[in-house]
């Protein structure tokens, strides 16, 4: 039943999103004018409108669009004639790769940092780290990206600034994404760690003589990370849709960069295909996070089963 409800919800979200997107795109401009180019006559522009069906009434255009959407036919790119969904699918792995890289580095940084902050006594080191995290929370990711480009690419000339050519080109985009995701995850893991350290099962482990490191990594860390699964899933879903600025800054050939280029050129079919992939990716990520959390925490699984 839960799978059927999930499928029903996905269909509803897709229908609502793609419908709103269709009408919003028609407010941005006339693709026929862009395709015709500068100096085109009104007759040439009208001919292009007729060729692509833009001369039909808006509701007729929507009916055709909705019918094709049922078969995942988004049409062809107005820019180069490539099938729109194929063009989006070609760009999606680059975004997925960046998201996985950023998620991995985020966990490698946030888990030990959050565990340390949650168990550390108040002192200069703890206050300094917390102050840095607070400051980083106030910086948008694109600001960090520009600062790192200025420092490591322009100033020191250690790293390239654009492209998807190899490990050296992965560093700045990954760190830029991590810079605005890690502070929140560190805070959540810190709070979960503090709560776990004051729980009965940790007191029992301490009373039985278990070493502090064993208690921290065997009992505290899994529970601290379990409480952060929902946030990790939300951050990963965000990366599948919210890396538009980062991908544009670094000319990263993902769906965010493709979305910007297609929007600027009024390439409606490609924009619609990209947004479709984003919605499906976000929905699948959130569903996976929910099922993983339910599988690891019987209390959540039982509560959802009762629903």
Descriptive account of the structure:
The protein has 307 residues and is mostly helical. It folds into two domains: 2-70, no CATH class; 92-305, MetI-like fold (Orthogonal Bundle). The chain is 78% helix and 0% strand. It has 15 helices and no strands. The protein has helices at residues 2-25, 31-36, 42-52, 58-69, 84-119, 124-137, 141-155, 167-197, 200-207, 212-226, 229-241, 244-249, 255-264, 268-296, 298-306. The radius of gyration is 24 Å and the shape is elongated. It starts with a helix and ends with a helix.
Key features of this structure:
single chain, 307 residues, mainly alpha, MetI-like fold, 15 helices, Glutathione ABC transporter permease, MetI-like_sf
**Please, what is the average pLDDT?**
86
CATH-scheme architecture of the largest domain = Orthogonal Bundle
Beta-strand percentage range:
under 5%
Q: Which series of helices and strands comes N to C? A: HHHHHHHHHHHHHHH
What would you give as the CATH superfamily of the largest domain?
A: MetI-like
Number of domains: 2
Write down the overall geometry.
elongated
**Radius of gyration, taken over Cα atoms and rounded to an integer in Å:** 24 Å
Largest sheet: none
